[in-house]
Design brief:
The protein has a six-stranded mixed β-sheet, sandwiched between helices. Strands 8-13-12-9-10-11 form a six-stranded mixed β-sheet, sandwiched between helices. It folds into two domains: 124 residues, 2-Layer Sandwich (Nucleotidyltransferase, domain 5); 189 residues, Hexokinase, domain 1. It is an alpha/beta fold. Strand 9 and strand 10 form a beta hairpin. It is globular. This is Glucokinase.
Amino acid sequence: MSHQSDQSQALPFPILIGDIGGTNARFAIVESADKDAGEPRIVQTASYATIDDAILAVLDGSPIRPRSAVLAVAGPVEGEEIALTNCPWVVRPRQMFSTLGLVDILVLNDFEAQALAVVALGDEHMERIGGGEPEPGAGRVVLGPGTGLGVAGLVHALGRWIPIPGEGGHMDIGPRSKRDFEVFPHIEKLDGRISGEQILCGRGLVNTYRAVARTDGKAPVLTQPAQVTAAALDGSDPVAVEALELFVTCLGRTAGDLALVFKSKGGVFLTGGIAQKILPALKRGNFREAFEDKAPHRELMASMPVYVITHPLAALAGLAAYARNPDLFGIETGDRRWRT
């Protein structure tokens, strides 16, 4: 398919871009192909009954009225009603034609947007954690613990970057070390299994903290992810310290598994607020050791660079890059795009 034939992929400006997670929704407007995205607006999903209400509030008083939208949502994009995984909002694109006055709507998975950001952002928005130099054009992986655990691949083919969305955050995760086998029986299960999200997200960190406490017969006292992170980083709570160490180790193992799947010589990218906040813990060594401990491919793993994306609104940056120049990316819109 030629780039010329793909010009139909362009949406009419101004374009509303939105990164909708389980806790926060972030929006901005891209006026034209030669302008950066406007001032971002961030709202809490719990503050609005519907995504339409949230967007109307964001647009209230704005002199720019978007004609189209590119929305990235935390959940699989299927059908006419798109439910978010960790939020009660349901995206109904056809309804948005009347409620928001839009004429063209594209809905992506939120980690597709994070994958787009890997291409859009420069080195100044990356913090490297070991490994060699990235191989240009090689496969990449993006993952990020947040309200849930998001995962996406990124491959380069036919001159374009192609994001590969998925639900990798729900892969099984299991014990390996002697201590793991003591702690894992106390980790809360979901329908009888421990998936990545039972450990590698905000509530998963609290889940892990409680499991470590119960393993040693202690009463867990911390209830929020931020509390566990703070107590672990300042060393004030030994249970929190061990919980964060286990969290980081499991993140390294999972990142390494995904890197093997995609043979990610182009790099592995950790994104989201949790990764940014625990950057000191990620640099201590157990993350990298767990990432590389993949016999018989330790040498391959050691060559792969890992980056923490430090841009506070990375997904919006990726969506803005797509809105301005969609032919840079190989995104199959198919039944994920609605037009009047």
